[in-house]
Amino acid sequence: MIARIALIRHGAYEQLKNVPSALQPFPLTEEGEQEVRQQARTFGEWLTRNGLRLDPQVDSSTLLRAWQTAMIYIEELREHFDREPQVVSFPTLCERSVGAVANLPVEEIERVLALDPRFSTPPENWKSDSDYCLPFDGAESLLQAGQRVADHIQAWRSQHSIFEGNHEGDGLVKLLVGHGASIRHGAFHLNVIQFCDIKRLSMFYGHPIVLEFSNDQPIKKGFGEWKQRQTHDVPD
């Protein structure tokens, strides 16, 4: 039995310029909503060609842009769900937290670090440094954020394995809507991509990457493509 989970980055949203995406509370843009709808329709065609159905529980991060993306998937793919679908939000699927300095511009965060004699100068490009964690309450590194996403996926996989073969949900594709950086770091923890791929790759807005799990076999990619990161890409 193959268990499948579709990892989906939220659509484009009203992101504040030069502010870590982290916990920004803003909605999708109109263009972002349309792009997600198109991606969902294309995914629906793949489901039909392969005779696959969707798990009625869609897991989403608690952030508005992810919840909106999950709701658009439900609207566009309603006929593909095994039963009446619903979105369930989890803080474990959020983007990397910067803690007490959430929603401050990068230059303001660096000014606060410089003002406090307890803190050292952060590394260059600290925002994309997988290991670096800001010294503020509630902050975490990108690798720590990826670990909680990977743990969430492993918990789903473990539950699926327990009921495998005698559960009405067998064979359904699970939808998970989250954020580019935490999903990529989660994929690294799951041995889906290598550490060097984290910076090389990104995710298309609203585009699902389906991972296939089968007993004693490496995780395979069943649908979707990672995006090759460009220098002008909008940060995660």
Automatic annotation (TrEMBL):
The entry lists its GO molecular-function terms as: phosphoglycerate mutase activity
Q: Which domain of life is it from?
A: Bacteria
Positions annotated to bind substrate: 65
Record keywords: Gluconeogenesis, Glycolysis, Isomerase
EC number(s) on file: 5.4.2.11
Entry-linked SUPFAM superfamilies: Phosphoglycerate mutase-like
**Site residues, Transition state stabilizer:** 179
For this protein, the record's InterPro entries field holds: His_Pase_superF_clade-1, His_PPase_superfam, Phosphogly_mut1
Q: What class of enzyme is it?
A: isomerase
Its GO biological process terms?
gluconeogenesis; glycolytic process
Q: Could you tell me what this protein is called? A: phosphoglycerate mutase (2,3-diphosphoglycerate-dependent)
Q: Can you name the source organism? A: Marinomonas primoryensis
